[in-house]
Amino acid sequence: MSAKTIGRIAFQGEPGAYSHQACREARPEMEALPCRTFEDAIDAVRRKDADLAMLPVENSTYGRVADIHHLLPESGLHIVDEAFVRVHINLLALPGTPLDKVEAAMSHTVLLGQCRTFLRDHGLRPVTGADTAGSARLVAEQGDPKVAALATELAGEIYGLDILARHIEDKSNNTTRFLIMSREPDGRRRAERMMTTFVFRVRNIPAALYKAMGGFATNGVNMTKLESYMVNGSFTATQFYADIEGHPDDPGVRRALDELAFFTSKLEILGVYPADARRL
User: CA 135 → CA 11, 72, 109, 125, 131, distances in Å?
Assistant: First the structure.
C-alpha cells in the first residue's frame, strides 16, 4: 500500500468504474480495491482486506440498483456515510485519434442509452460492452482507433486514452447515490442533517403498514425513501427499506421508531450517518 494512503475501500467493478470514481471523490486518502461483485466487496470488508465498501444503491435516471437492498441487511456491515456522485460520460479514444476518425462507441448498455443524442449527431455506432471501465480497457488493448469508449475521465487516465468529448450525457442531472459501509456502526457523529436507514417487516394485522407509518407523520419525521421487496422469492414475505431524516436519539425519531417497532415483526437499523451535502 502506498505511504500516502490510509486504509482500503472496496468497490464493485474494474479500475476506472463509476464506483471507483466515487471512492476517489469520497475517500481520496484511501486505496481503492476493485472487486468482481457486490458480494466480493462486502466480503473484503468482512475479511478485513478492506476497511470500507462503496456500494451504489440508486440512480436518479434508472432507479434502485438491482439486488443491493437484499444484500445490505445480510451483509453484517453498517452504513457510515452516503455519497452522491454526478455521472459524467466522456468519449475516450486512443491517443492522437481525432473525433472524425471514430466510427463506434463501446460501453455498458445503460451508458449507451444515456448518450443517444451525441452518438446520433456524430454518426457513432453503439457497441455493447460488459461495463464502462472494461470497455475503456478493451479499447486500449485492441488498439483500433475507429472504436472509442464511453466512461469516466478516471478510466481515460488509467488506460492511457485521450478524452475526445466531455460530459456528453443527454441528462444534465444524472446522479448515483452510494452508501459507504463499515464493519462497525458510527452513531456518535452529529451533523446539522443526519440520516437513518433501516429495514422492517410489518406484523400480519390489518392496516399494519399504515399504522406503522403513522408515527413518522405525527412526530414530524421526514421519510425520504420507502421501498418494498420480496424476501426469499416469497409473495407473502415483504420487507421494507426506509431512509428518514434525523438521528435515533432525536425525541421525535425515537418516538416514531418505538411506534414502528410495535407494528413490526422485524426492525433493523442499517446505519446512522450525516446527509451528503448534495442531497436535496
Answer: 18, 28, 11, 14, 6
pLDDT digits (tens, 9 = 90+) for 227-256: 988 776 666 567 899 999 999 999 999 999
Is 200 a known active-site residue?
no
Q: What is the mean pLDDT of the chain?
A: 92
Q: Report the C-alpha gap between 77 and 27 in whole angstroms.
A: 18
Q: Could you tell me what percentage of the chain is helix, strand and coil, using 3-state DSSP and rounding each to the nearest 5?
A: 30, 35, 35
Helix residue spans in the chain (DSSP H):
18-26, 38-46, 68-74, 109-114, 116-121, 132-142, 153-159, 208-218, 251-262
| Annotated catalytic residue within 176, 196, 197, 264 | 176
Residues 103, 46 share a domain: no
pLDDT tens profile 177-205: 999 999 999 878 889 999 999 999 988 78
Q: Which of 11, 38, 178, 263 is catalytic?
A: 178
Is 240 labeled as catalytic in the residue annotation? no
Same domain? 178 vs 56? yes
Residues 70 and 31 in one domain: yes
pLDDT digits (tens, 9 = 90+) for 88-106: 999 999 999 999 999 999 9
Same-domain check for residues 69 and 96: no
- Residue 103 belongs to what domain range? 90-165
The pTM for the full model equals 0.90
Q: Is residue 46 part of a domain?
A: yes
**Are residues 178 and 79 part of one domain?**
yes
Tell me whether residue 120 is in a domain: yes
**For residue 226, which amino acid is it?**
L
Residues 101 and 114 grouped into a single domain: yes
Q: Is 17 helix (H, G, I), strand (E, B) or coil?
A: coil
Number of domains in the chain: 3
**Is 105 in a helix, a strand, or coil?**
strand
Q: For 16-25, write each residue's pLDDT tens digit.
A: 999 999 999 9
